[in-house]
């Protein structure tokens, strides 16, 4: 293919189109004016004008996670770039493929403290998978293609391309590269066959096995989830998922034990603790998952499949590491299990399931909905009942409501659950919902929110209105930063320092001010009607669900405790005080 | 339990010689709380596209493993070699050491330099600059002896290292 001559700004548009980009989330400013001018003159790319750059990155994350495509962001230099930093860090922690183009002052002014200059590549170096400063328009096309390759391949993540204004104006040659291969960056997708074989033998000989899977399965694409499901079903083994992995295995299946970790189910955590073989698939033994490290699954041999070698042996020493893409490795495992005619140890497995059934009988997610006061768990259950037969995507903010959503809203498919897991970013859910809704205009997209988190990026409701993204912000309004209040109750003698949500706006009126619809449920008997109205509404909705302010999230493994040392409910709170070691942990 | 003993490792990192690559490596160490005991960097390929970074670091075996995995994960890094683990290797450091001394101390400094095979790179009536090459320990020892003789200023290159044998990276 012959190269074409055009300006840097035109190269940006052309490359994005060539890379299959349809939507760009952005916000203009002086240092990206040439790109905005080029955007104006074309009709292939759709630009979504957000209200704050942080919202652009979260919207791109929502778009990416619900489609499996790369989310694209365009912001100006200086404050535009710094506003994007939280979203970039969020995307790094949760392995979300995002490419963020930032404007920069002209090359001859770099380092001069010029107006709206910041050291974007310096600031974003630790919060991106990789970043680039393009100083020569001749490198621009190639760099953009490389940025997309790096963001989307291997363990996905955010990539920043910093574009000085003079480079956007300069004329250069553009040619779409033939191959994506990179000189030094070569992610490994196929797992080591002998390690895979060993792993399958170990699994076949297990007496108390468990499959523990995470976001890596979702990132591996539909095939990852299908193969995980196939493998779990053919072995008959129990399966638990991390917060990031929800949907990777169908929640409605009997072999699913629920989420594990700090607010995971009793049965998932007990089964992890007592297991003799753990197959970890695309998860990373995060501290929210393992609890006290020296008491984590003490008797288990551990197999770990991960595409990122640095995830292996980071927190927990594993017996069989397998570096590769989840779908590739699982495909091999399924094949080997079949060809070697492996069969689970039936007697041992029955006994194992008997124990799991006993743990299940504890019914750790139970709650009592009685009287007028709406229990937040009940609100989520009702939301699920009302939405389960339609195409529904859930995003969340961060806090108690997020954990209740993870516990009480089951997912049978991947890519329908978008939450900020690694960074725990309040304000993620609303802009993420906008991104999801734009990718899936006909689906129902609900942000399960807390009132405090909603205030962090409420401006993006205006974006939703502009593009008729009919998102539903479902606020479990407990008038507290509930999750922090819960920790203060457990760890700080009930001194609720600065966690009461004082001077809250009237969310119904607030919605109306944006041109959206505001609804409110104050009593239990209003809940179903409000949910029905919200779903039926052909507009963005903010539903203010007034819930019990005193409710806490259980079960809970307090920081510094082991999996088999869970608090099951308020009665346990006093019986098992948190250790001093646990206090200092987050 | 994990082996918690602190080990010192010399790691060679081959990187694309692009702007910011050293910042990525150094930032990784500071951001994740790893130690850098010594770090040197220079281009090593004929066309100047490849640089070699030699790092001396310390940590538990699990940390050392993490350091290598994290280095390898950086996009412009093409190879990470743990020389300490991979077999025999040669390690050298160069130091320029100025000793300001007169009279008997001045003569003594020359004698010590001779024992350490340090060469005199510069001299004035009341000072020498010695060049000494060797392991970190040798340079430490030399510097310490010189300190007893007068004012000492030290400039050290940091460690460079290479594996023995015919294999070429
Ligand atoms: C940006 C940001 N700041 C602070 C925190 C710490 N934090 C975690 S949960 C939480 C409270 C969230 O309150 P709300 O949104 O009302 O949710 P609830 O826990 O009440 O359901 C806070 C402050 C955070 N996660 N993110
Ligand atoms: Mg709240």
Explain the overall architecture.
The complex is a heterodimer of chains A (586) and B (169). With 586 residues, chain A is α/β, with parallel strands linked by helices. Chain A has 3 domains: 4-174, Thiamin diphosphate (ThDP)-binding fold, Pyr/PP domains (Rossmann fold); 193-361, 3-Layer(aba) Sandwich (Rossmann fold); 376-546, Thiamin diphosphate (ThDP)-binding fold, Pyr/PP domains (Rossmann fold). Chain A contains 25 helices and 20 strands. Chain A has a 6-stranded parallel beta sheet, with helices on both faces. Chain A has a 6-stranded parallel beta sheet with strand order 11-10-9-12-13-14, with helices on both faces. In chain A, strands 16-15-17-18-20-19 form a 6-stranded parallel beta sheet, with helices on both faces. In chain A, helix 9 packs across helix 14. The longest helix of chain A has 16 residues, at 137-152. Chain A is globular and about 70 Å long. Chain B is of the alpha+beta class and 169 residues long. Chain B has 2 domains: 7-86, Alpha-Beta Plaits; 90-162, 2-Layer Sandwich (Alpha-Beta Plaits), CATH 3.30.70. Chain B is built from 5 helices and 9 strands; from the N terminus they run βαββαβαβαββαββ. In chain B, strands 5, 6, 7, 8 and 9 form a 5-stranded antiparallel beta sheet that branches. A 4-stranded antiparallel beta sheet of chain B has the order 2-3-1-4. In chain B, strand 6 and strand 7 form a beta hairpin. The longest helix of chain B is centred in the middle third of the chain and has 13 residues, at 61-73. Chain B starts with 6 loop residues before the first strand and ends in a 6-residue tail after the last strand. The chains are: A alpha/beta (586), B alpha+beta (169). Magnesium ion binds next to helix 19 of chain A. Residues 399, 450-452, 478, 480-482 of chain A line the site of magnesium ion.
Write out the distinct hetero groups bound to the structure.
thiamine diphosphate, magnesium ion
- The share of residues in extended strands of chain A comes to 15-25%
Question: Count the helices of chain B. How many?
Answer: 5
How large is the count of helical segments of chain A? 25
Proper CATH architecture of the largest domain in chain A: 3-Layer(aba) Sandwich
Class of the largest domain in chain A in CATH? Alpha Beta
What general form of chain A does the structure show?
Answer: globular
Low-confidence stretches of chain A: none
Beginning-to-end CA distance, first to last residue of chain B: 36 Å
Large-scale geometry of chain B: elongated
* Main beta sheet of chain A: 6 strands, parallel
| N- to C-terminal distance of chain A | 55 Å
User: What is the fold-level CATH name, i.e. the topology of the largest domain in chain A?
Assistant: Rossmann fold
Largest interface, C-beta closer than 8 angstroms, per-chain residues: A-B, 20 and 22 residues
Helicity range of the residues of chain B?
25-40%
Number of domains of chain A: 3
């Amino acid at each position: 293919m012959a190269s074409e001559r055009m300006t840097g700004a035109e190269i940006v548009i052309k490359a994005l189109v060539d890379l299959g980009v349809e939507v760009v989330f952005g916000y203009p400013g002086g240092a990206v004016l040439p790109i905005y001018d080029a955007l104006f003159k074309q009709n292939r790319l759709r630009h979504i004008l957000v209200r704050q750059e942080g919202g652009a990155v979260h919207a791109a994350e929502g778009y990416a996670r619900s489609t499996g495509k790369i989310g694209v962001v365009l912001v100006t230099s200086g404050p535009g770039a710094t506003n994007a930093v939280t979203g970039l860090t969020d995307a790094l922690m949760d392995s979300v493929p995002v490419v963020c183009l930032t404007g920069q002052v002209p090359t001859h002014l770099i380092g001069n403290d010029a107006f709206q200059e910041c050291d974007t590549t310096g600031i974003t170096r630790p919060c991106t998978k990789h970043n680039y400063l393009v100083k020569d328009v001749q490198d621009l096309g190639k760099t953009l293609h490389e940025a997309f390759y790096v963001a989307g391949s291997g363990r996905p993540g955010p990539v920043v391309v910093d574009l000085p204004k003079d480079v956007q104006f300069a004329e250069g040659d553009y040619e779409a590269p033939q191959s994506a291969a990179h000189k030094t960056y070569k992610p490994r997708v196929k797992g080591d066959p002998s390690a895979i074989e060993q792993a399958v033998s170990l699994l076949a000989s297990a007496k108390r096995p468990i499959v523990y899977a995470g976001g890596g399965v979702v990132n591996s694409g539909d095939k990852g989830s299908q193969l995980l499901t196939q493998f779990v079903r053919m072995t008959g083994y129990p399966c638990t998922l991390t917060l990031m992995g929800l949907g990777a295995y169908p929640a409605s299946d009997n072999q699913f034990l629920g989420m594990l970790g700090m607010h995971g189910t009793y049965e998932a955590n007990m089964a992890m603790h007592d297991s003799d073989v753990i197959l970890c698939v695309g998860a990373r033994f995060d501290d929210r998952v393992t609890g006290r490290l020296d008491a984590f699954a003490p008797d288990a041999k551990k197999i770990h499949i991960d595409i990122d070698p640095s995830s292996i042996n980071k927190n927990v020493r594993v017996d069989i590491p397998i570096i590769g893409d989840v779908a590739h490795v699982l495909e091999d495992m399924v094949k080997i299990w079949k060809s070697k005619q492996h069969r689970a140890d039936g007697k041992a497995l029955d006994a194992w399931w008997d124990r799991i059934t006993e743990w299940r009988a504890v019914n750790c997610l139970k709650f009592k909905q009685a009287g007028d006061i709406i229990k937040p768990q009940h609100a989520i259950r009702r939301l699920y009942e009302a939405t389960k037969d339609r195409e529904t995507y859930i995003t969340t903010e961060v806090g108690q409501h997020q954990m209740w959503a993870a516990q009480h809203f089951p997912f049978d498919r991947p890519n329908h659950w978008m939450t900020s897991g690694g960074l725990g970013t309040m304000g993620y859910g609303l802009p993420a919902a906008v991104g999801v809704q734009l990718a899936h205009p006909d689906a129902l997209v609900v942000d399960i929110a807390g009132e405090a988190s909603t205030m962090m990026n409420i401006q993006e409701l205006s974006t939703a209105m502009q593009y008729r993204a009919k998102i539903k912000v479902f606020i479990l309004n407990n008038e507290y930063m509930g999750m922090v209040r819960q920790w203060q109750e457990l760890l700080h003698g009930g001194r609720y320092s600065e966690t009461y949500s004082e001077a809250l706006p009237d969310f119904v009126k607030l919605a109306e001010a944006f041109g959206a619809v505001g609804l409110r449920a104050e009593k239990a008997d209003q809940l179903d009607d409000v949910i029905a109205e919200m779903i039926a509404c052909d507009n963005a909705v903010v539903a203010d669900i007034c819930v019990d302010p005193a409710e806490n999230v259980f079960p809970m493994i307090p920081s510094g405790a082991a999996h088999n040392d869970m608090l099951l409910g308020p009665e346990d709170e006093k019986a098992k005080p948190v250790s001093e070691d646990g206090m200092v942990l987050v | 339990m994990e082996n918690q003993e602190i080990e010192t490792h010399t790691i060679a990192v081959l990187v694309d010689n692009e702007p910011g690559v050293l910042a990525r490596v150094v930032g990784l160490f500071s951001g994740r709380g790893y130690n850098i005991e010594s770090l040197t960097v220079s281009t090593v390929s004929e066309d100047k596209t490849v640089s070699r970074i030699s790092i001396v670091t310390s940590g538990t075996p699990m940390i050392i493993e993490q350091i290598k995995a994290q280095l390898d994960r950086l996009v412009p890094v093409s190879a990470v070699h743990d020389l300490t683990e991979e077999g025999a290797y040669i390690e050298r450091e160069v130091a320029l050491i100025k000793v300001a001394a007169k009279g008997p101390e001045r003569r003594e400094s020359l004698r010590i330099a001779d024992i350490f095979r340090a060469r005199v790179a510069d001299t004035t009536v009341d000072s020498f600059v010695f060049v000494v090459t060797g392991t970190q320990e040798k340079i430490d020892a030399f510097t310490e002896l010189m300190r007893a003789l007068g004012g000492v200023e030290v400039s050290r290159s940091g460690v460079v290292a290479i594996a023995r044998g015919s294999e070429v990276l």
